[in-house]
Structure prediction request, 272 residues.
Amino acid sequence: MAQVRCQIIAIGNELLLGDVQDTNTYWLCQQLTGLGGKVIRCFIVGDDPEEIGWAVKEGLSRDVTLIITTGGLGPTADDITLQAIARALELPLEENEEALRMIESRYQALYQAGYIQDPSITPPRRKMALFPKGGKPLFNPVGTAPAMLLEYKGSYIVSLPGVPEEMKGIFQSSLVPFLKELFGQAFYESITVSLECGDESSIAEVVEKVARLHPGVYVKSKARAFGKKVRLRVTLAASGADPEEVTRAIGKALSYLEEEMASRGIKVSKEL
Prediction:
């Protein structure tokens, strides 16, 4: 089963200014990889329609199946993600009735809970219901702005809010049916082992050899420092439709790694 090719676009001037750290991309990479997908690139762009549009079209031009954007869905003037996508794909921007109902419901709930004084749908609030034609709203269980799912020429664009709690809430609830359909019964497994070795360069050839002989397994060594008491870490990961085959592939790669390291007097220990 071919892996689903994914691209992530984090949007916001605050990210480029260093005012806010982009933790969304890190989290999404973990989630998509865990589903069996393959994240092939990530971008950080500002609140600029040209940059947002370029990043989206770049992904589509490289046969990316799933593009996820984060940020720029709110009521303020600089929240322009959906407008930029519509412009880049030459799709009309129109008010989505379902999205508007979601927004109305959320503001009514906030009003009844005493969090806001007026639940009226003002122009800034109504702005959050403007979607590219064909876009489907995804309910936001945490905030007020619906997310969007858009199918475009065989690819999919998912636009999520930039607030991490909202982004995660939608990904883990409203987006689940779509993700199950897209990724199928994909299975992902990852293990990390420790090596009693303080010099990554001394095992580089072995790690490269393991990866070459086991192409279905991702093999990566990680080093933070030098020293006799330093333990290097090596991660082995794989994904596929059959959990047993994935586990077996990792097991074979690990066995080979252990044999090669043992021949060099290096002990390998599995991390819990």
